[in-house]
Amino acid sequence: MNEIRNTATNLMDKQLGRNPVSETYGQPVQDPSGATMKAVVFDGSRNVKIDEVPKPTITHPKDVIVKTTACTICSGSDSHMFSGEIPGRNKGSVLGHESCGIVVERGSEVKDLFVGERVVIAFDIACGSCSFCKRREFTGCDTTNDTKLMDVNYGAHHSAIFGYTKMLGDVPGCQAEYIRVPFGDVNCYKLPEDIPDIKGLYMSDVLCTSLHACELGSVQKGNTVAIWGMGPIGLFAGRWAQILGAKRVIGIEVIPDRIKIARNRFGFEVIDRNEVKDIPKKILELIPDGPDVAIDATGFRFTTTMLQKIERAVGLETDSADVIFECFQSVRKYGHVALIADYVGTSNQFPVGHIMMKHLTVRSGQCPCQNYFDRVVKAIRSGEIDPEWMITNKVKFDDLPDAYEKLFYKQDGYLKVFCQM
């Protein structure tokens, strides 16, 4: 398996290529003063550490520099980085894509942001000017990520994402004392004075992405919604479904601490995998026609069958289709399935026949956070959404490597952390 990953990484390095666009937008340039800063960096499979790295500087007239005031760890994408299962992450790369802070420098062409303003940073990096951005399809931005291998693999390329791999722009992440934000006017959202960091921080990903899951699933008033995975995204997808008028939210989870949070804090019905082996059968007992909407918030690493475990272990596939099968098997005819969890490669036994025979609508993709900021602020202000429901641990910056391990191995009740700088 390691040989396969190393081969993929070497192939990526050979095929990537760089042009002035990515050199300007993606690659770090040190502050002229030579100043350094603390950051969380990748140090090999299942290892991260705090290190001194160059402090960023303005390299494009639309850049802003943000001094971080709070950050967190994504229990999904950052765990994928931590695991080392996604190739293209170099040792020393700065991790993270969920942060908020204060603008301390601005480029000459920045129009709407000023030094001293508090902002939350979208995890997806968009230019605001290409044909995709003009349609508000920000995660399809054609400017910020020119990785050639992505075009070879997928036929097109995704926008850049903070703190991810070469495949997604190789942009330094947000778990650092300072962050260079390309196209600051597009990718920063001004935090109102009545939204403190402990709430505004989570607009960078979780609160927007979970709402996007419901949009992908076309959740309507009166729907029944089943959600696989009661991590932060799954929990708040269920909460948004309630706000949108769903009459019933059913979660599927295996971790006892998360089951308790889903039941006690969010009021969901929860199917415990420790007690129920055949999830589709149980769902169809509860809802004979099947739920209207199925949301997969688990991702490519979660396997339930021995076949998928073996195929992933020996490199015959990268992504497990087990949860996707359960979603397709359970959802009603003419139902909607939203794949909001990360899938990055290929999967065997993908149940394509279900889509045709059950007339399913299946939608997926990373969240264009910029489309949801205003709605999320409104919901936070009204009290309908409270990010503090999911925070299990408040940590110091130097404790983030330990928090990575706790989240990855699902230890000590860790679900979501809040790190105030």
TrEMBL record:
Entries under Gene3D superfamilies matching the protein: Medium-chain alcohol dehydrogenases, catalytic domain (3.90.180.10), NAD(P)-binding Rossmann-like Domain (3.40.50.720)
GO MF entry, a single one: zinc ion binding
InterPro entries according to UniProt: ADH-like_C, ADH-like_N, ADH_Zn_CS, GroES-like_sf, NAD(P)-bd_dom_sf
Residue ranges annotated for the Alcohol dehydrogenase-like N-terminal domain, each copy included: 61-192
Biological processes annotated in GO: cellular detoxification of nitrogen compound; cellular response to nitrosative stress
Pfam family, one: ADH_N
Coiled-coil blocks: none
UniProt KW RNA-binding keyword: no
The keyword Metal-binding is assigned to this record: yes
Domain of life assignment: Eukaryota
Cofactor: Zn(2+)
Keywords of this entry: Metal-binding, Oxidoreductase, Zinc
Residue intervals of the Alcohol dehydrogenase-like C-terminal domain: 232-307
Family classification: Belongs to the zinc-containing alcohol dehydrogenase family.
Protein name: Glutathione-dependent formaldehyde dehydrogenase
Native organism: Schizosaccharomyces octosporus (strain yFS286)
